[in-house]
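User: Earlier you gave me the apo prediction for this protein. Now I'd like the version with zinc ion bound, so I can compare the two side by side. Same sequence as before, with the ligand SMILES added.
Assistant: Got it. Here's the input I'm using:
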Amino acid sequence: MISLPKSLLAIALGLSLATGYTLNTKSEETLDLVVSIPPQEYFVKKITGDKAEVTVLVQPGSNPETYEPLPQQLKDVSQSDAYITLGVSLERGWLSKIASSNPNLVIINSGEGVELIPMAEHDHDHDHDHQHSHGEDGLDPHIWLSPRLVKIQAQNIYEGLVELDPENQAEYQQNLNNFLAEIDQLDTQIRENLSGVANRKFIVFHPAWGYFALDYDLEQIPIEVGGVEPSAAQLGQLVNRAKTEDIRVIFAQNQFNTRSAETIAREIRGEVVFIDPLASNWSENLLEVSETFANTLK
Ligand SMILES: [Zn+2]
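And here is the structure of the complex with zinc ion:
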């Protein structure tokens, strides 16, 4: 600690009081929260406003399927007020590590009450000895890509926050209402964007869009087979299917290798288009994705 002359210290104290801050009480004024992926930061911030600092474990550009928490992140989690999980298999690898090194950590499961669907699988008849990158439960973890399911997650986040910080309940309630209204508006806009789309099938490398497809009456055809690259024969089947279904665009995301998406696109003389399931500007991104679908699924 640097020792300041008394007069300077008084000025510093006076200034900090004048701006509404007191020394060393930051942690009492704002909650320190941890989330798994960038879209959750968006959800949590919508409800907390400036009442929380949010740390994201899987940073933009990283792949949650292969993520391992860094030692510094484990430390950040241990000093936080709560970890808000999605409650899906994706987190299983690191959640046990985090929970065992922080027995007193408050965990808010934002996925409580979300009905999971099976992970989309490319039709295949070989034996099941390949690895499943989404854990053993075979259920689709991508619950943050459905506005309908994000409403459930927002409600759970709100309830967890009120338990942590009951003093600000009224503000959280107001913020939750605003966020739910934003989600309803987004849902309406996505439906409008997709209303004229005749061919509702799309091919995507990593099948992250299962809930989105379910909600908006689209059909997702994955390239990945059980979390791994398809064989040459499976690629050939997909090329044939794309040709018979008149599919011209193959979707990919930049957290994964795009080689097989490019191979199919070349064979069908189509193109690879990137859509990001992990963008932190959640609302805007889903709206853009619906516009991309509307422009490419013809
Ligand atoms: Zn995924």
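For your comparison, keep in mind: The chain is about 45% helix and 10% strand.
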